[in-house]
Amino acid sequence: MTQDIVTLPEAVVPTGAKSNSRKVFIKTYGCQMNVYDSGRMSDALAGEGYEATEDMQQADLVLLNTCHIREKAADKVYSALGRLRDMKKAREAEGREFMIGVAGCVAQAEGEEILRRAPDVDVVIGPQTYHRLPQALRKARGGERVVDTDYAVEDKFEHLPDAPKRSGPRIVTAFLTVQEGCDKFCTFCVVPYTRGSEVSRPLAQIVTEAEKLVQAGAREITLLGQNVNAWHGAGQTGEDLGLGDLLYRLSEIPGLARLRYTTSHPRDMDDRLIDAHRDLRTLMPYLHLPVQSGSDRILKAMNRRHKAAEYVALVERIRTARPDIALSGDFIVGFPGETDADFEATMALVETVRYAQAYSFKYSTRPGTPGADLEDQVPEGVKAERLARLQDLLLKQQREFAESCIGKTIDLLLEKPGRMPGQLIGRSPWLQSVNVDAKTSQIGDIINVRITAAGPNSLFAEVAES
Ligand code: 5AD
Ligand code: SF4
Fold first, then answer.
1. Last residue within a domain, chosen from 156, 183, 216
2. Tens digits of per-residue pLDDT, 324-335?
3. Same domain assignment for residues 367 and 449
4. Pocket-testing residue among 32, 179, 185, ligand 2, by greatest number of atoms within 8 A of Cβ
5. Residue range 195-233, pLDDT digits in tens
6. 366: Cβ below 6 Å to ligand 1?
7. Cα–ligand 1 centroid distance for 264 (angstroms)
8. How far apart are the C-alpha atoms of 87 and 172, rounded to whole Å?
9. DSSP 356
10. Ligand 2 test: best mutation among 33, 179, 182, most atoms within 8 Å of CB?
11. Is 192 left (phi over 0), alpha (psi -120 to 50) or beta?
12. For the chain, how many structural domains are there in total?
């Protein structure tokens, strides 16, 4: 499985590799939920004799796990499919099987349209049906082109196998999807249409999966959901539980050192969840809490259902509960009707909140969403100017936050080998990458380090005397 944007090869050099097992190359676009889904698809395919490969040249199946959130994300899929065409032709000339599958949110949104635009695609499978991928591939092998984008009535998680034991470096940090879909219907967003309405996985299923991840070596788990803090479940006596309760429960798992969750909606930050930030040392002091805009007028047009001041007040409450918490956010500039004054309100909110990290985007029209029908679309040039100003400010805050860490002694979870020999990369409580001299055998350990310097994308540290 790979997460980077890979350039597909223009021409294909036959590898001549012969192996008994088939190989799958999965290219993941978009959010962490897709990263998690790619892992589960890989597990489902392992049962069919597919081995995952990082080398597309070796693959008998290329699966694109796609993202539909912004226009550019969807365009990338079609250009990748265009390039895969040549690869398929070359393989067919060799008499070798080569299948192409499209999974994820573009699959869900476009369905049959993908088969029409990309005649070499064999399988189109939605995010709710990927447990049926093995059947779809078998049908495709029989010559049928398959589209399976239903909202399956059965629980896909019940039908997916556990992850097989993988060789290679130990996985120290893991994702775990606890909730999918969204009922919020922000007017710019495709998620309620591609991922469907909100569904929470049951508590026991989540606890079991978390325990298995810890047994397999995970020290840190990030709970995932499009609207993760809308997670709800039932306790042993049928009482209603929320994400805060789930975090208290997962904190009891021996060996699980760190918990995180993403992505949250401000309206679902309830008292119990804020208490969890105050009480649980396992819950890392980092919160991704998108606000999108600082203008009440635009927030209303976006159907966010809260005001800017309410968001700022919420951040204050969270900071009171957990003073060292670092905030991250998402922003959209150039939503239809956004005036200079609205944009200045966003800049003012950012100045007030002070983010440690953030993602910001130009508004991108998504067909089928209410935003697409709004008049008063903002010209591209204006969007670009606003985005540049916002990103300058956010970057400055990110740098200031990183520099404020210099001299601090912190816990570092050692995750993987670094670029230099003798170096490892670890994760700070605030999700920063930190380089430190340490031995490979220490991967998975949490050590005490002192931050010595801040680079543009990572920090540097030395082991602290204890
Ligand atoms: N245009 C631009 N950005 C968008 N996002 C979601 N939909 C759009 C869109 N149509 C951004 C939001 C969201 C993040 C995942 O992507 O900021 O929080
Ligand atoms: Fe999209 Fe998030 Fe709004 Fe749901 S809450 S519609 S996922 S932006």
1. 156
2. 999 999 999 999
3. no
4. 185
5. 999 999 999 999 999 999 999 999 999 999 999 999 999
6. yes
7. 13
8. 35
9. S
10. 182
11. alpha
12. 3
9 occurs within a structural domain = no
The three-class DSSP label of residue 272 is: helix
Q: Are 416 and 438 found together in one domain?
A: yes
Q: What is the mean pLDDT of residues 4-15?
A: 31
Residue 3: inside a domain: no
Cα(317)–Cα(312) distance, rounded to whole angstroms?
A: 9
- Residue 444 domain boundaries: 409-463
Does residue 264 surpass a pLDDT of 80? yes
Q: Is residue 192 part of a domain?
A: yes
Measured in whole angstroms, how far is the alpha carbon of residue 235 from the centre of its chain? 28
Q: At what angle do helices 32-46 and 133-141 cross, to 10 degrees?
A: 60
Do 199 and 146 reside in the same domain of the chain? no
- The backbone torsions φ and ψ at residue 355, rounded to the nearest 5 degrees and listed phi first, read -95, 145
Q: How confident is the model at residue 161 (pLDDT cuts 50, 70, 90)?
A: confident
Tell me the two tokens of residue 353. Answer: 């909140």
The answer on 244 and 351 residing in a single domain is yes
Q: Using alpha carbons only, how large is the chain's radius of gyration in Å?
A: 23
Q: How far apart are CA 389 and CA 376, in angstroms?
A: 21
Of the three residues 404, 420, 455, the one that is the final residue of a domain is 404
pTM, two decimal places: 0.92
Q: Say which amino acid occupies 273.
A: L
Residues 399 and 433 in one domain: no
Name the one residue in this structure whose structure tokens are 């080569």: 98
Section 392-402 average pLDDT: 97
- CATH number for the domain including 393? 3.80.30.20
Q: How far apart are CA 241 and CA 309, in angstroms?
A: 28
Give Dmax (Cα) for the chain: 65
**Closest ligand to Cα 197:** 2
pLDDT band at 163 (very low <50, low <70, confident <90, very high): low
Question: Crossing angle for the helix pair 308-321 and 271-279, nearest 10 degrees?
Answer: 30
